[in-house]
Design goal:
Elements lengths: L2 H13 L30 H10 L11 E4 L2 E4 L42 H11 L1 H20 L6 E7 L9 E10 L4 H67 L5 H36 L22 H11 L1 H22 L5 E10 L4 E10 L8 H65 L5 H33 L15 H9 L20
Antiparallel strand pairs: 1-2, 3-4, 4-5, 5-6
């Protein structure tokens, strides 16, 4: 092959991919979209592009020649002003959704053994060590890789060809060819426009998983703080019951009480010991649950429960509902699904526009000693298949996605109503049981003073102390319920800190929200209601 011919083919092959081939997209299909449908436009955030670029492998310091990142979408650099239709631009009429900021958590270690664990310590440990957050970040990388791949230009084909071998006892025509598919109608841009919402959905999925982890850590911490207090109160009651048994035996020795009275005090001692062991078992379970959520083998010390009874702002229904619908990652993911469906309609409408296949070749005829060139251009004729079915399916997907937004919002309202009702109930119980606890404490002080004056014996003090314990347990149970329901509301109703993020889609979570899981089925509930002695 002559050098001049080789240079001509190479120059033509380099210029062909940059050519723009246009075809008018049939606009009649756009009318198939329901006129009353609610269209939500999502403005891609720069953080999304940064996340994508962070996982894109280096390509020699440049991007593919036909696309560049601009304004959050991949756009063709050779698009003419007369393009009949192009991928969506950043003109959101309803205002852009702000994508969540990337989590900035590093490897964290547990505090020293002598330092009590605060709630902030456990949250920091969980955000640094919980494996589901690493999985959620990997899902972002996975979606970003798919987005990048969808916009890459097809590779050219270079090959060898031979014809008329043996003609006049010669090698015939020997040469090579170059083939390139020219993608038209901005299909590559549309590919990325369809997949870009998946990247932002994954980013919102990371935010949702962060909230799930924090909600679970807070509910488990409140459970542990509450049951630890009951262990302390039960220990005090056991000490007092042991003193009562010893006093009854001394009284029996001098004939002041009957043997049946001694047996009753021993029965009471066994009962309060059962309460103590039950509380210790619940404390053990709560500690194990916290270690699992925090990703550490063992809690290094006791929990600092100063925040357990700290006063908190009273939640208001209207404010919490507004916050939930505006900030819930589930709602944002559902809206992004609408954007994806709208972009898919544009992609399916571009599909019938035929791509152009260009093939160039050069061969040397050894029989005549001439160099021959060939050129071939081919397009698919959209005669029978104009992608009608896929366009109709994309329109149906848009309608379904718009309905999903409304369904998720209503499901969140339903769950918030249940969680808020439990919060209000627990708040009233805390107030009432708090007043009863104060009165019981004053009664115990008066009984102790009377016993020191010789008016009452230790058996009467034991009965009063048991009543104080009952009231204290009821108060702690109500306080735990109040804190946990408040944590659930403030965590945007997201639970499941160790659930696989890949399975926590808006659809699966929406189905879960149709049958709300009661709070009692999450963190283990306190059930240490003792029986008052007769």
């Amino acid at each position: 092959m002559r050098p001049r011919a080789i240079l001509a083919i190479a120059a033509l092959s380099l210029t062909l991919p940059a050519c723009t081939w246009r075809y008018a997209i049939p606009r009649r299909t756009i009318g198939d979209v329901p006129a009353g449908a609610r269209h939500v436009r999502i403005e891609p955030q720069q953080e999304t592009i940064d996340a994508i670029e962070s996982v894109i492998p280096a390509s020699g310091g440049r991007e593919p020649p036909d696309v560049r990142l601009a304004g959050g979408l991949a756009r063709s650099t050779n698009r003419g002003a007369d393009a009949p239709r192009s991928p969506p631009t950043d003109n959101d009429p309803e205002g852009p959704l702000v994508a969540p900021q990337p989590l900035d958590v590093s490897s964290a270690e547990a505090p020293a053994d002598e330092a009590p664990l605060t709630l902030a310590d456990l949250e920091r440990l969980a955000l640094a060590n919980n494996p589901t957050l690493r999985q959620a970040r990997a899902l972002i990388d996975e979606a970003a890789g798919a987005w990048w791949q969808a916009g890459l230009y097809p590779n050219p084909v270079v090959g060898y060809q031979a014809e008329e071998i043996g003609n006049d006892d010669t090698a015939g025509l020997q040469g090579g060819f170059f083939s390139q598919t020219i993608v038209t109608a901005d299909k590559l841009d549309w590919n990325r426009a369809v997949l870009l919402p998946d990247v932002e959905q994954a980013r919102w999925g990371l935010e949702a998983q962060r909230l799930r982890v924090l909600t679970d850590v807070r509910t488990a911490w409140y459970e542990l703080a509450g049951v630890a207090r009951i262990v302390d109160r039960a220990g005090e009651l056991v000490d007092l019951a042991e003193q009562a048994v010893a006093a009854s035996r001394d009284a029996l020795a001098v004939g002041q009480v009957a043997e049946s009275d001694v047996l009753l005090t021993e029965v009471e001692l066994n009962g309060v010991r059962v309460l103590l062991e039950s509380a210790r078992a619940r404390e053990f379970a709560a500690r194990r649950r916290l270690t699992a959520l925090a990703g550490i083998p063992e809690l290094p010390g006791d929990v600092a429960d100063e925040e357990f009874e700290a006063s908190a702002d009273v939640l208001a229904w209207d404010e919490e509902l507004h916050t939930l619908l505006a900030a819930s990652p589930l709602v944002q993911q559902a809206r992004l699904q609408v954007q994806r469906a709208r972009n898919r309609i544009g992609r399916e409408q571009a599909q019938p526009v035929p791509d152009v296949n260009v093939q160039l070749g050069s061969s040397h005829d050894f029989a005549t000693d001439f160099t021959l060139f060939s050129a071939q251009v081919g397009v698919m004729l959209p005669v029978h298949n104009r992608n009608q079915g896929a366009i109709a399916a994309a329109v149906a997907e848009l309608m379904r996605a718009e309905g999903e937004v409304e369904r998720v919002e209503l499901a969140l309202r339903e769950r918030l109503a249940e969680a808020f009702g439990r919060y209000e109930q627990a708040r009233v119980q805390v107030e009432l049981f708090g007043e009863a606890r104060d009165k019981a404490a004053r009664a115990r002080e008066m009984t102790m003073q009377a016993r020191e004056a010789g008016e009452f014996n230790i058996f009467r003090l034991l009965l009063v102390q048991r009543q104080v314990f009952d009231t204290e347990v009821q108060y702690i149970q109500a306080l735990v319920e109040l804190r946990q329901s408040q944590a659930l509301v403030e965590g945007l109703l997201l639970e499941g800190g160790l659930a696989n993020p890949a399975s926590q889609t808006t659809r699966s979570l929406g189905q879960t929200m149709q049958s709300p899981t009661p709070l009692s089925s999450g963190p283990a509930r306190l059930s240490l209601t003792p029986q008052t002695p007769q």
